[in-house]
Amino acid sequence: MTVLTVGRWAAFSAAEREVMEAVFWERDVSRSALAAQMGYSKSKLSAAVSGLMTLGVLEERGVHASTGGRRAEGLGLSAELGVVAAVDLGATSLSVALLTPTLDVLSSLSEDTDVRQGPGPVMARVKALLRKLLTLQGLQEGAVLALGMGVPGPVEFHSGLLVNPPIMPGWEGFSIRDDLAGVVDAPVYVDNDVNIVALAEQWHARRTLQNFFVIKVGTGIGCGIVCNGAVYRGVDGAAGDVGHILVDPLGPRCHCGNVGCVEAMAAGPAIARAATLAAQAGESPLLAEWLHTQGRLDPPDVARAAREGDPVANAIIQKSGLLIGQMLAALVNFFNPSQIVLTGGVTRMGPLWLASIRQSVYQRSLALSTRHIEIRPSSLGEHGGLIGAGALAMLSSIRAESA
Amino acid sequence: MTVLTVGRWAAFSAAEREVMEAVFWERDVSRSALAAQMGYSKSKLSAAVSGLMTLGVLEERGVHASTGGRRAEGLGLSAELGVVAAVDLGATSLSVALLTPTLDVLSSLSEDTDVRQGPGPVMARVKALLRKLLTLQGLQEGAVLALGMGVPGPVEFHSGLLVNPPIMPGWEGFSIRDDLAGVVDAPVYVDNDVNIVALAEQWHARRTLQNFFVIKVGTGIGCGIVCNGAVYRGVDGAAGDVGHILVDPLGPRCHCGNVGCVEAMAAGPAIARAATLAAQAGESPLLAEWLHTQGRLDPPDVARAAREGDPVANAIIQKSGLLIGQMLAALVNFFNPSQIVLTGGVTRMGPLWLASIRQSVYQRSLALSTRHIEIRPSSLGEHGGLIGAGALAMLSSIRAESA
């Protein structure tokens, strides 16, 4: 196995890196398609490919259908390179996986966690799951090529430090990178969970998505932005922090101190609160009954009541969608994206929520900006976060970003 | 004179283009600084520089102070290349200039116009002024190296066509590029006036501004976005069309059909209307007097009244600033820019307007996003639009964008 350590990633030439990145996005690509896509001459491409095959970075894949008489051999990143470690940390869940360099999941483990326990206990579980997976695969820790991790809070990307993470008390200034450096001899990259989903969506679409954003609606509201093909983090790494955009000057006070923030009016807790108030006021017998039996109401209860035809639940869902759509309309006018991808727990509210978002965006955005726009739930399955973390690890390593 | 025609721009190698672009941004730069900045070896840089000097593209400039014992010769784009033609078309004004390849203004002409006359009469004036300037400089039309033009409406950048320009009736689908192709044998690039100002600001800062936006507030409100160092136009070229972002769900109806658009509540016409209503209602004796003598009130009247201490005028200016700031706060949370640059006629409302914008942005944006942000009026002088049009012409030609 040709494992690349932190130092060895830095040894590639610019042309070799470009070829690696192009092959990474394409998974399995013929030399002629690669040369055409990169604008390389056949000889320049051959030189880079030969070097990378000698180093064990690239390998021949199956035979491609060819337009000419000769068969076209496909190229892919070699499985011999090692494994990619991916960590997807949520507020209440932890998943760890080992992936091939082309992001096929070799094995994964998930468990409940509470990120508020702080970095000590949580990172101990990350390391334990990682070691368990390596053992299951019969691998040493040195087999890890690169590690990527998504976290539910803002990250200063170049340092990998958590910055003022509201739902992660005790993590402020904690370096996940340093903490994992002793475990794997490989570059470690950390980013927030929404940027990770944006990267996974881009990977899923083989880089055809160039200008889009992902909105995560759960306990809070966050946004991952891709601009000209790259994740855009802003000047201070704070881009996409859209939860406190004003949607109603007469709205309720938010925990941030301002009034009328979209997060305070349309995210999970606002939905649960509206349902509880409606139940207490006797507006919905169904919600009142569940509140009585369960002791509390959560967004899935509202979704369930809506499915059973409860008009109050439908109105709550519709209001959330309309307010999120109003916020998105402003961002569509500014950014003119090709797609808006929705993710997070509230996405499971159902079709009425999505329809309300769309209605609001179409009504409040300019015709030119909405001519081709697609607003859709994320198409990633349960492993979306892990695939995104793996893509972060591979891309950042190939580009030799500081780790 | 070594004039580059449309075809000849395409003949440069990728390395030559990179050197040309770096020299363009720097104006006058030593070989060692250039090699360091571009990550080129001295030999690779020397080869590209020698080729470009032989072709007459680069020339030696003055002697630079050097840290070592040897003197460092500066390099710049050669004035022998030809002249850059720049056209700055506003709703009511037209300026045309000839610039050196390093964007020094050789001569310029301005006159009043009315863009609503349509392309025929307006473009005839563009051509007449261009010919007059060439004659004044003793040059043939063939001396023009590249032409850039800013227009007060949305442009589909790759085709150069105007798309549904609200204040330019009769221009829909008109090709300025084709119209000027018969006049100059050089690439022609067209963009909207706010993108042009963004480019001029970036040029002014020698490309140190990488992520920022320009807001133009006049009759309408528009935005020019620079993302990762490049003007960002969005998927349909509609990015930055922020005038119809909702700022008050209970606000007045806008000409677009929606209610509460920032343009309808805070741009020039809204300021004039608020002043007129206040004068008619007897709330401001000063404004009432001017309305009586002048027959109408315009934004400069409101600014003048504010300078004379009129409280109603001050309240009108403050409300405009607060609403624009509220809209900008949403964009700051989303985009986390290093700067917001204000331009357009309403910018001349004075310090209270700017202070109100700042207050609103600081109150409604996240602390991390506003830690380093600068909100300021454009620092470009009267030739800002022309410099931006010249920068568009040079950069697009160097990058061989389709023209």
TrEMBL record, chains A, B:
Pfam families in the record, alphabetically? ROK
The source's domain of life comes to: Bacteria
| InterPro entries in alphabetical order | ATPase_NBD, ROK, ROK_cs, WH-like_DNA-bd_sf, WH_DNA-bd_sf
Family (UniProt): Belongs to the ROK (NagC/XylR) family.
Q: Which PANTHER family match?
A: GLUCOKINASE, ROK (REPRESSOR, ORF, KINASE) FAMILY
Per its record, how is this protein called by name?
ROK family protein
State the organism of origin. Answer: Deinococcus hohokamensis
